[in-house]
Amino acid sequence: MKEKNQVAVSTLRLILTAIKDRDIAGRSKGVDNGIGEPEILQVLQTMVRQRQDSIEMYKQGNRPELAAREAEEIRVIEGFMPRQLGDAEIEAAIASVIEDTGAESIKDMGKAMGALRERYAGQMDFGKASVAIKAKLSG
């Protein structure tokens, strides 16, 4: 606020609101002590993914100024997330999870994805990881 960075301030307010909403939703499901770090990381990942989708839409609509603002919001949000794994690290993580869970076919994909989410929460795009796991298990 002191730096008068309006994008950062508004993005932080959006983050806090999203976390509070998830916390309130958790209370209705019986989680009285608040949401944990994995849920917070999931909220942040969802926010990043939403902004990436918005950037694509703004680019298609020829609105580069709005796409730039969304990109700035992504940078602010990613500042609160752990370091993202590179492609080679993701491949190694997937291979490790498949080996550790004993996944052999598409039927075991849920088990492998669950283990991947547990071990690497907030460190990768699980949509892309899901496609990679599916390719490995079906091929």
Give the topology, please.
Layout: H1 6-28, H2 37-60, H3 64-78, H4 87-101, H5 109-119, H6 126-138
Helix pairs in contact: 1-2, 1-3, 2-3, 4-5, 5-6
Broad shape: globular
- Which topology of the largest domain does CATH recognise? Hypothetical Protein Yqey, Chain: A, domain1
CATH superfamily of the largest domain: Uncharacterised protein YqeY/AIM41, N-terminal domain
Reading off the top of the CATH hierarchy, the class of the largest domain is best stated as: Mainly Alpha
How do the helices and strands follow one another from N- to C-terminus?
Answer: HHHHHH
Q: Termini distance?
A: 52 Å
Number of helices: 6
Roughly what percent helix? over 70%
Mean pLDDT: 90
- Helix-and-strand structural type: mainly alpha
Overall tally of structural domains: 2
CATH architecture of the largest domain: Orthogonal Bundle
User: How much β-strand is present in the residues?
Assistant: under 5%
Number of strands: 0
Low-confidence stretches: none
Largest sheet: none
- Rg, alpha carbons: 18 Å
